[in-house]
Amino acid sequence: MRKFYLFGFLILLAFDTFAQVGFKLGAMHTAPAALNLSWFQRLSCESWIYAAVAGYLGSFVTYMTLLKHAPIGPAFAASHLEVVLVLIVSVLFLGETLSIIQIIGSLLIVGGIALLAVGKDGAKEEAHSLVDTA
Q1: What backbone torsions phi and psi does residue 79 show, to the nearest 5 degrees?
Q2: Domain with 105 in it
């Protein structure tokens, strides 16, 4: 079952990251944003926007499938790795720059998820030891 979770979360991260990067590219190609007919026409013809929506739909289906089988706490926490992954992809491929605050925030997110994962495993071991002693 652990392979299912790992594979599922990797797919979720891929869909989420693709959606975020797709919206970024769509926004760049339809700039400048304005609430007028011309901008909405550019937006409706931009393929990156449709790709991003498809990424969100894939993300939604994957997340709902994972929630059916995975504990909600770790599933919710792991889904937030997408924020860090989008940041990395943006720096590597879109020319974004990182501030020290963004680096610290990313490390805190990854650290928090790691603590939740360790805490969950520790709680399982404690529960098993309580059952064995009873």
Answers
A1: -65, -20
A2: 2-133
Amino acid identity of residue 67, one-letter, is L
Q: For residues 8 and 63, give the distance between their C-alpha atoms in angstroms, rounded to a whole number.
A: 8
Select from 76, 67, 66 the least CA-distant residue to 117. 76
Three-state DSSP string of 42-58: HHHCCHHHHHHHHHHHH
Euclidean distance between CA atoms 79 and 75, whole angstroms: 6
Reported as a single tens digit per residue, the pLDDT across 111-131 is 988 887 777 555 554 444 444
Region of 50 on the Ramachandran plot (φ > 0 left; ψ -120 to 50 alpha; else beta): alpha
**pTM for this predicted structure:** 0.77
Amino acid at residue number 32: P
Which are the contacts of 112, defined by CB distance < 8 A and separation ≥ 6? Answer: 77
Q: How many helices (H) and strands (E) does the chain have?
A: 6, 0
**Percent helix, strand, coil in the chain (nearest 5)?**
85, 0, 15
